[in-house]
TrEMBL record:
Organism expressing this protein natively: Cellulomonas persica
The protein's name in its UniProt record: Uncharacterized protein
InterPro entries: DUF5995
Length: 236
């Protein structure tokens, strides 16, 4: 999908993602996640113009801020700054030869949805002068789930189908990990975290402590998602 389709603002961040992706190898863990995320972002760019959302301007603003948080990762790496703790496990293991590409994708989704999305919601609400509880905000947030499902569910299912067939119906540890990761539940958690961060945003060290705790917790989950499992089956 070309970057000129749909939202121009989202098209710009897609172009920025493409510029970063061009510097990474095909198997780079950050690149694997970026490939999936680009498809989702491209679809959102179209959906903000086709009547899917009640407030497409809000969703467009949210999506740009959300994508920019992912782009902070390669920017921090290029500037030799410390990467956010939520992203650190994927950055550290991005070149590990014994991890499945889908593990990289899931770890990226975990960091981006469970951490970055809550921050993006708060930043967007602050910029637009509306609380997350304002009429229609949560409804549009939920509609993004349907957009995600168009990309992520077929990806997960195709992996699971291949592994189950290859294993004679028995799930491998990696397939079991994949089957138990839910994007919908991750977004539910992101919404709850956004509400918490919104209410403590002006409380100085409390707000900073809440953000740090969130980043550490999300990073811990990513480390689990990036566990190297013994895999008796040949990779496709």
């Amino acid at each position: 999908m070309g970057v000129t389709e749909g939202s121009v603002a989202i098209g710009r961040v897609i172009a920025a993602m493409d510029a970063e992706r061009s510097q990474w190898s095909r198997t780079d863990g950050l690149g694997v996640f970026s490939d999936v995320y680009r498809d989702v972002t491209s679809l959102v760019a179209v959906r903000v113009t086709d009547g899917t959302f009640n407030d497409p301007a809000f969703v467009e603003d949210l999506d740009v801020r959300f994508a920019d948080l992912f782009l902070d990762v390669p920017r921090d790496l290029a500037a030799r700054r410390t990467v956010n703790k939520a992203w650190a496990p994927l950055v550290e293991r991005r070149a590990h030869p014994d991890l499945w590409p889908l593990q990289f994708a899931l770890a990226g989704m975990n960091a981006h949805i469970n951490h970055d999305l809550a921050l993006a919601v708060v930043a967007t609400c602050e910029a637009r002068g509306v609380p997350p509880t304002a009429r229609g905000v949560h409804a549009d947030f939920e509609r993004v789930n349907d957009v995600l499902a168009e990309v992520v569910r077929p990806l997960r299912q195709s992996f699971l189908d291949r592994r189950v067939v290859a294993a004679g119906g028995e799930l491998s540890p990696v397939a079991d990990l994949v089957s138990n990761f839910s994007v919908d539940k991750a977004r539910d958690a992101a919404w709850a975290n956004a509400l918490v961060l919104w209410h403590v945003r002006d409380l100085g060290f409390v707000a900073a402590a809440a953000r740090d705790a969130l980043a550490r917790t999300v990073g811990l989950v990513s480390r689990q998602l990036l566990t190297v499992f013994p895999e008796p089956l040949d990779r496709p």
